[in-house]
Each structure stands twice: as C-alpha cells, then as structure tokens.
Design brief:
- The protein has 24 helices and 22 strands.
- With 693 residues, the protein is α/β, with parallel strands linked by helices.
- The strands form 4 sheets. Strands 12-13-11-14-15-10-16 form a 7-stranded parallel sheet, sandwiched between helices. Strands 17-22-21-18-20-19 form a 6-stranded parallel sheet, with helices on both faces. A 5-stranded mixed barrel has the order 3-4-5-7-6.
- 41% of the residues are buried.
- Among the domains are: 58 residues, no CATH class; 100 residues, OB fold (Dihydrolipoamide Acetyltransferase, E2P); 153 residues, Rossmann fold (3-Layer(aba) Sandwich), CATH 3.40.50.300; 156 residues, P-loop containing nucleotide triphosphate hydrolases (Rossmann fold), CATH 3.40.50.300.
- Helix 9 runs parallel beside helix 10 and helix 19 runs antiparallel to helix 20.
- A hairpin with a 6-residue loop joins strand 3 and strand 4.
- The radius of gyration is 32 Å and the shape is globular.
C-alpha cells in the first residue's frame, strides 16, 4: 500500500498506517476524509476509567475498570447457530472473575495464561461468580501502563467496523507523527490576550485530557478558532462588499414618501419603526448599497417599513421589487401595497407563477421599459427573461425560505440595488452574528399600540368539551377561530388528528355555525375564495394546515387552536399564534393535546411561558440546533465540531471583535498566510454561501 512520505493536514486518512481504503470509507461516513478532519474528530463524551479496582471491591451493576492476570481461556460454540463464546478466568491474586466475549474469534491466541489484562465493563454475578460481558480490554506488557483503562478515555461517534480502541490508537499515532509540524493559524497576540493554549496542544487535550482545567481551556480555544474563522469570512465579505460595490444614493425626503406618511398611512409609526427607518435612511443616502436584515415579530409592522424604503427608490427614479416565498403571501402583500400606493399614482403589479402568459409578457415589458415602478412576486421575479429598466430597491420577505443564490439573482437584476431582507422569525443574536454577520441588522422590538399579548394555554384532549364551549362563546361575541392540524388526511398513526377528520367533527358539533376547510391540496382559486370569505367574516371556524402560517391578516380572528402541537416546529407554533390578536380584541392560543415526547413538552412549555419571539427563538435554538433553525444545515455553516452558539456567546463576541479588527488592519490577510489558507480550506466553496446569506 502507498504510504505518506510527508504527513500533511490535507492528506487522506486512507494512507495512515492501519487505515487503508476499507476503513477510510467507514471514516468517510463519519465525516473524516483528511488528517485535518481526524484532528477535528472530537470525542462525543469521555469515560473516567482512571480508577483501577481490586477484584474484591468490584460491585455488581456498576461499570468499572480492573487489572488482572489470565488463569485460563476456553472457547466454544454455543448451541445457537453462529455464536462463539470465549470465556477467560482472571485473578488479581486475591479474587476471581470471569470475562466473557461473544463472536470474538481469535481471542484465545491473544489472551494467554499468565498475561496481564486491563478490562472495562459492567460487573454482573453469574452462578455465584463475578462476571463481565463484552468488556473493552487490552493486554498490558510487564512494567507498562494500560492505554485504554486506568485513565480518562475519549468515546468517539461510531460506525460499524470502527472499534473505539482502534480509533483512539489511530488518533494517538497521528498526533505523534504531527508533533511539532502543525503551525498555529491564530495570531500569537490574540492567543496571548485570551490566555489560550496553542492549537496542537489544544487538539491533544481534547482527545486525551490531562485534567478538567486543561480540557476546558483547550475546548474554549478550539471553539474560538471555529467562530473566529467564520467571522473572518464574514468580515472579509463585508469589507469587499463595501469596497467593490458602488450603489445609488436615494432621496429620503421625496414627495411620494411624504405624501404617503401624511395622507395615506392610517396610523402613527411606532418608535421602533421610526428608529428602524432612520437606520435604513442612513444607509441609502450613501453610494454603498445597503445590505440590511430587518427582524420583527409577527404584526410588528415590517411591511410598512418596506413600503417606505421602496418609495425612496421610486422618488429617486428607480424601481422596487418585493419577493415573497409563496403566492399566498405575495398576493397578501400586493393587495396592501397596491391599496396604499395606487392613490399616489405609483404603478404596482403582481408577478407569480400562476399569472397567464399574455399578462406576464405585458408585465415583463412594463418592467423593462420602466412603466411599472413596484413589482411584488414570488420566485417568478428571478426568471432569466425578466429584466428591469432601473432596479434600485430589493425587498426579500421571510428571507430564510429562499436559497442564498436565489436572493442574489434578484439583486443582480439591478446595478447594485439597496437590499432589505426581512424575517418574522426572530433569530437569536448569536445566530444573527454567525450567519448574517455581514449584514447590518435592524430590529422592530415593539408592537403597535393597543395590541394585547396572546393568552396561551396547554389543553388536554380530555377537556375538548370545555374548549368547544369557549369557542362557542367567542363566536357569539363576534370572534373567529383558526383550528390547525398537522396533516390533511388520516394516516397509519391514528393518534394524530387530521384536518379532514377535525373538520367533519367541528361541522357536526357546530351545526349552526360556518365551518370551512383549507389546505395545500386545494387549488389556488378555492384557497383564495375561502380566505376572502374568512377575511369578510363569513366563516366562523377555519380548519387548516400550516398553509395559513404566514400571509393571512384577519383582525377579527381571536382564537387559534393548534392540535397535536408537538408535531410542529417551535417557530411555526409562534408564527401560527401570531395570526390572532391582530386587532383590539384579546387573542387566545390553545395548544390542544399532550405528549410524552421530551422536545414536544419543551415546545409547549416555551409557548405557554412567553409571547416574546426572541425568547421563543432561543428555546428553538436549544431544541433543534442552529442549522435547523436558520436553514443553514444544507451548507454546513453552523455545524461546528466544538463551538456551541448557546453556551459560547462570550467567545463568539470576542471572536467577532478580533476578526473584524484584523480584517480592518489587513483586509486580505496578506500578513497571515497560514490563517488565510485555513480559512479557505475550512470554508472552501461554502465561503460565498456563508457570507452572502
């Protein structure tokens, strides 16, 4: 087999002694392909095997370690087909114990009488004698100490065919081969500032801890390195974006904007909205294109901010595009935007996949010739044959639902337009800094005056009649009800209630009320008609799936019932709850059904404890992890080996501070070639995806 002449971080693990192509393929399943991957193959836990017990002190039911000599070994075939049993009788001079292994052919030639053996396993009593089954063992030469027993031992993520003891040996040998040859990527002054150990020392300590204190210092240093490299990528992206792009200054005191605020807008902007719009205005009066993330809970008034921003573009002779993730949401936005801007003479149009071809051609022509000032649409806005005469402002709503490249395609249809991306799913600050760290961030942290917090309660299915009575009272008082189910039709899991089954039940129970069913399988015209009827108050109870998660704004809806709530994501539950209480009436959310599922109970508890979207987002992050919450799992952006965005907030902030400071001094890391090399190797082709998210 070919061997490595020189071991480098980028070398394939296949050529390490004892690995080969078969085990390399097994390593690949665990995400380990190179020597560097092997170094970062961090143990998932550690076992303290440091105490070696006398045989007489071993306690049945406990997992313990001991050192003994082999008295005799017997290997036999069991009656059961294909089962070989190897039994060794061991002694430490005072007591005896049996060690038994199943289907370990060849042990008899390894465990020879008189040899010393260190074993770690669960102690049992069988036939009046102590016994350990399938314990991890190693033969220990005279005068030597055990390598896998008698110390703190790393336990790695595993796959069939890679034994823990073998993984430990390969890593230990690799560390020995690399000793003194791995350059530290982090600048020395930064390591000194935070008292961090060197890279190689930290890696060794993570695999084979010498003490709790040393392990913790190593762990924090490696977490810093992961976060530092990501923040470097973000800092370089932001620096290059500012340097390489020249945008257009927009007029923030134009007649259309002032007329809209003075004559059209039916309410006073909240202080938070005023603050956010001021932040946007500061950006768009510069010739550097704005790249801003706007966060705000459901109903906080993000759409109004988007309209103000787009009017600045129209006032300046530019066009604006507003992209939403679904046709339902796009139509909702179009109705509101058109209703408010039409009196000002601003031409607004809707472009979605269902628009007839002839009408599409007309819209394409109007956009390319500048007759249309504002277009609201879905993915239809990023078609190749669509062009703008002068696109100056881009708004992306519910940005986490779009791929990064899709968002870039729309922005690239203009000459460096200003970009505002919005989300009603609050993102924890740690995630914002990690995934959207090259964007400026604005937060609307205030709801409109008079808006009440929604009362949220968990209700068991044994209280269905009481819940129905409450719904009847609300309907009699003029309120309307959403009833959300996790699935449309029945399936093999009969414990989960489908929308169709719930609809039939409610229609039977509320015979004199108007009950309707809405779900994604209905055609668009049906869905639109049902939503119109609900908005007009012609439906009392709307049974639905999550198709109404975003996009429907009915101030008269006061009750949200979510059946089998543990089936939904926490952010989904929060979005659904935000569909009620949008007027002056008190809103209610009932989480209908209990569960024994641990994460499900955590979701329900979080929903009942707070209406604060950012606290909900923190809880969601704790339950699902950063990649799932932010939609970055596909890019591996937040899949850290060591860093944890919940526990490592302080490390993240210091890593960000140091990374941005370094890029300010040395924008392309010319003075830090090793750091630049690590950055490219670590992020590679993810770099663009990460830092333009």
């Amino acid at each position: 087999m070919e061997r490595l002449k020189k071991l480098e971080l980028g070398s394939s693990v296949q050529y390490l002694k004892g690995v080969g192509p078969v085990r390399a393929r097994k390593f690949k399943k665990l995400g380990v392909e190179t020597v560097e991957d092997l170094l970062w193959f961090i143990p998932r836990r550690y076992e303290d095997r440091s105490k070696l017990s006398d045989l007489s002190s071993l306690e049945p039911g406990k997992i313990q370690a001991f050192l003994a000599r082999v008295v005799s070994v017997e290997q036999r075939k069991a009656r059961r087909k294909n089962l070989t049993i190897c039994t060794a009788l061991l002694t430490d001079g005072t007591s005896l114990i049996q060690a038994v292994w199943f289907n370990r052919v060849g042990l008899k030639s390894i465990l020879k009488p008189g040899s010393r053996v260190a074993i770690y396993g669960k102690i049992e009593i069988r036939g009046g004698i102590k016994q350990v089954n399938n314990g991890e063992f190693e033969v220990v030469e005279e005068g030597e100490a055990p390598e896998n027993v008698g110390l703190v031992v790393p336990i790695y993520p595993g796959t069939h065919g890679l034994v823990q003891k073998w993984i430990r040996r390969i890593i230990k040998e690799t560390l020995c081969l690399l000793e003194g040859s791995v350059e530290d990527p982090i600048p020395g002054d930064i390591l000194k500032k935070y008292g961090y150990p060197g890279f190689f020392q930290a890696i060794k300590e993570m695999h084979f801890p010498s003490s709790r204190e040393n392990w913790l210092a190593a762990r924090n240093r490696l977490a810093f390195q992961e976060l530092f490299l990501l923040q470097l990528g973000l800092a370089i992206r932001k620096k290059s974006y500012v340097k390489g792009n020249r945008g257009h200054k927009l007029n923030t005191e134009g007649s259309l904007l002032n007329s809209f605020i003075d004559r059209i807008l039916p309410f006073e902007l909240t202080d938070a909205q005023k603050r956010v719009f001021s932040e946007i205005k500061e950006d768009i009066v510069k010739d550097i294109p704005m790249n801003r993330l706007l966060q705000g809970d459901v109903g906080s008034g993000k759409t109004v901010i988007a309209i103000l921003f787009m009017l600045c573009a129209v006032d300046s002779g530019y066009q604006a595009a507003f992209m939403a993730p679904t046709e339902v949401l796009a139509r909702q936005h179009f109705k509101k935007i058109d209703r408010w801007l039409a009196p000002l003479g601003v031409k607004v149009t809707l472009l979605t996949g269902s628009v007839p071809l002839a009408q599409k051609r007309e819209i394409y022509d109007g956009l390319s010739k500048g007759r249309i000032s504002v277009v609201v649409g879905t993915h239809a806005l990023i078609q190749d044959n669509l062009s703008f005469k002068k696109l100056g402002a881009v708004v992306i709503d519910e940005q986490h639902r779009f791929g990064v490249l899709q968002r870039n395609i729309l922005a690239n249809k203009g000459e460096q337009p200003h970009v505002l991306v919005m989300t009603a799913t609050p993102i924890p600050r740690t995630l914002t800094l990690s995934v959207y760290g090259d964007l400026s961030v604005s937060i609307i942290d205030e709801l409109p005056p008079g808006r009440k917090n929604i009362i949220t309660k968990s209700v068991g299915k044994d209280m269905e009649l009481e819940l129905m009575a409450f719904l009847r009272e609300e309907i009699e008082k003029g309120g309307q009800v959403y009833w959300i189910c996790p699935m449309i039709e029945e399936n093999e899991d009969s414990s989960i209630t489908s929308a169709e089954k719930r609809f039939s039940h409610l229609r039977e129970f509320f015979k004199n009320k108007r009950v309707e069913l809405l779900h994604g399988k209905k055609n668009y015209k049906e869905k639109e008609q049902i939503m119109k009827d609900f908005e007009r108050g012609q439906i009392d109870i709307l049974v639905s799936t999550t198709v109404i998660e975003v996009g429907i704004d009915v101030p008269n809806a006061t009750v949200m019932v979510i059946e089998d709530p543990w089936m939904f994501g926490l952010s989904q539950l929060h979005q659904l709850r935000g569909r009620v209480g949008r007027g002056q009436k008190q809103g209610y959310c009932f989480l209908f059904g209990k569960t024994d599922d641990y994460d499900g109970r955590r979701k329900i508890a979080a929903m009942c404890s707070t209406n604060d979207g950012f606290k909900i987002a923190e809880a969601d992050l704790a339950i699902r992890g950063p990649g799932e919450v932010c939609g970055t799992r596909q890019h591996g952006v937040t899949d850290f080996s060591v860093a944890d965005l919940l526990r490592d907030r302080k490390i993240l902030y210091s890593a960000r501070k140091e990374a941005f400071s370094l890029v300010e001094r040395d924008p392309w890391l010319d003075g830090f070639p090793k750091l630049r090399e690590d950055l490219l190797r670590k992020l590679g082709d993810k770099l663009e995806l990460v830092i333009t998210a």
